[in-house]
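Re: [ENG-882] Designed sequences occasionally contain unexpected residues at chain ends

Forwarding the minimal case from QA. Structure tokens:
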């Protein structure tokens, strides 16, 4: 049985892939769903509407004809828009999953362009970019061709052609997690953009909700408190698929440390800026095309030579550590181009 997350993702694309012979495992249902998702992406359809692609293994022992996979595509109204018999002879199960993805992709592209869908030869070894095809040597002249689409009844409006959305170029959203030096809860607001499919730039602002404390005063009669805020910017290599995006790369951080004292005869407060540099990484699991769950992590080196001491009420307090880290979970809303 396919994993639950894949079934839910399959529905959210606007195109549901089903098998009438899932136990036959050729092609495997999960493998076919992934092949279709990687090639087509998502269909933009009205809310609550879905296209359905159903395939079944067909055997004809009495006629001597080769085994085929029968593919049928239905629009959101239930009308059959496409039927194909895809020969299994000479194909591996993985290749057949790619053939199904290719047939569906060509059909939807033909709807978008207004041109008739080309019926691809199906005894083929299909590569990701350039499929190789071998035509069936048996004559097909006597066999009636199947219509690639069922015409709409008189007076009815034809089904609108779905269009494939383009890639995400910007997403932003809030998050919450853990950060140092406070080693406690922190809030985050982040924006991430992809100027190309291989490059990402990002900016996040993190504010700690907890404090670092240590004794202060000549006899330790008071306390010094520290709370940090950080702005981080990164430039990262990225890779994306239909349901996730991952990235990793160098980042530059600017920290603002706020320190104050309590319990002393004369209390005070001070601010200190400091720099850090390190590595940022993260990923987004897209629950819908434009909404995802984010995980962001980072580790920065902040040399003491690049920052001043915090002096409060005449005393130096709260020397910062060399390493600063964070990890947050959040949500993201994506914009596309």
């Amino acid at each position: 049985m396919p994993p639950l997350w894949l079934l839910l993702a399959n529905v959210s694309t606007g195109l549901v892939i089903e098998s009438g012979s899932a136990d036959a495992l050729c092609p495997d249902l999960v493998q076919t769903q992934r092949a279709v998702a990687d090639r087509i992406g998502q269909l933009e359809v009205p809310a609550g509407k879905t296209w359905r692609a159903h395939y079944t293994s067909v055997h004809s022992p009495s006629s001597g004809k080769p085994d085929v996979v029968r593919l049928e595509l239905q629009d959101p109204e239930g009308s059959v828009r496409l039927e194909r018999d895809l020969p299994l002879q000479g194909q591996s199960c993985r290749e057949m999953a790619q053939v199904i993805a290719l047939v569906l992709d060509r059909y939807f592209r033909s709807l978008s362009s207004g041109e008739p869908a080309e019926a691809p030869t199906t005894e083929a070894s299909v590569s990701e970019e350039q499929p190789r095809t071998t035509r069936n040597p048996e004559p097909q002249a006597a066999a009636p061709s199947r219509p690639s689409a069922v015409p709409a009844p008189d007076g009815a409006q034809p089904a609108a052609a779905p269009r494939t959305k383009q890639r995400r170029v910007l997403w932003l959203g809030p998050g919450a997690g853990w950060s140092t030096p406070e080693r406690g809860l922190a809030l985050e607001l982040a924006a991430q953009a992809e100027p190309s499919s291989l490059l990402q730039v990002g900016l996040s602002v993190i504010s700690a909700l907890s404090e670092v404390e240590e004794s202060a005063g000549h006899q330790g009669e008071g306390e010094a408190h520290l709370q940090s805020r950080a702005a981080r910017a990164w430039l990262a290599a990225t890779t994306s698929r239909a349901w996730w995006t991952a990235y990793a790369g160098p980042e530059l951080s600017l920290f603002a440390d706020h320190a104050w004292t309590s319990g002393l005869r004369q209390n005070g407060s001070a601010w200190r800026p400091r720099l850090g540099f390190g590595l940022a990484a993260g990923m987004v699991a897209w629950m819908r095309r434009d909404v995802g769950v984010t995980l962001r992590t980072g580790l920065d080196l902040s040399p003491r030579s690049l920052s001043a001491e915090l002096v409060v009420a005449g005393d130096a307090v709260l020397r910062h550590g060399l390493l600063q880290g964070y990890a947050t979970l959040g949500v993201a809303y994506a914009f596309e181009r």
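QA comment: On inspection the terminal residues look reasonable. The two ends are 35 Å apart (CA to CA). Proposing we downgrade this to a documentation issue.
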